[in-house]
Amino acid sequence: MDVHFIIYNLPRDVSGLEQRVRLVDDRGKILMDSPLPLAAVNNLQPQALQGTRVKLQMPRGRYAIIVGLQGAKGKIDVERRADFVVE
């Protein structure tokens, strides 16, 4: 499964940012928790296209992918979640 998303309003200096991707099932069990380096960021634009590929065998059910972005100085701490169903 390919996942693509855009991060808006990035600070000019992204050197201290850490991005993580988690995959959880409908019971909250963490199936994947992995750091994801920020893709190339253009400092002239306040957004960055990001993406990853999830290679897991998933039985039918409900899942969520959660992308988190944290700054080293604690000024940025954001999580976004997308729910989906495998049929």
Walk me through what this model shows.
- With 87 residues, this protein is mainly beta.
- It has a single domain, classed as Immunoglobulins (Immunoglobulin-like), CATH 2.60.40.10.
- Helix content is 0%, strand content 57%.
- The protein has strands at 2-8, 17-25, 30-35, 47-53, 61-71, 77-86.
- The strands form 2 sheets. Strands 3-2-5-6 form a 4-stranded antiparallel beta sheet, with no helix packed on it. Strands 1-4 form a two-stranded antiparallel ribbon.
- It is elongated.
- The two termini are 14 Å apart.
- The model has no long low-confidence stretch (mean pLDDT 86).
Please supply descriptive tags for the structure shown above.
single chain; 87 residues; Immunoglobulin-like; two-stranded antiparallel ribbon
**What's the alpha carbon Rg, rounded to whole Å?**
14 Å
Mean pLDDT metric: 86
List SSEs in N-to-C order: EEEEEE
Percentage of β-strand residues: over 45%
Structural class, judged by helices and strands?
A: mainly beta
Order of strands in the sheet with most strands:
3-2-5-6
At a glance:
This protein is mainly beta and 87 residues long. The chain is built from no helices and six strands.
Helix/strand layout:
Blueprint: E1 2-8, E2 17-25, E3 30-35, E4 47-53, E5 61-71, E6 77-86
Antiparallel strand pairs: 1-4, 2-3, 2-5, 5-6
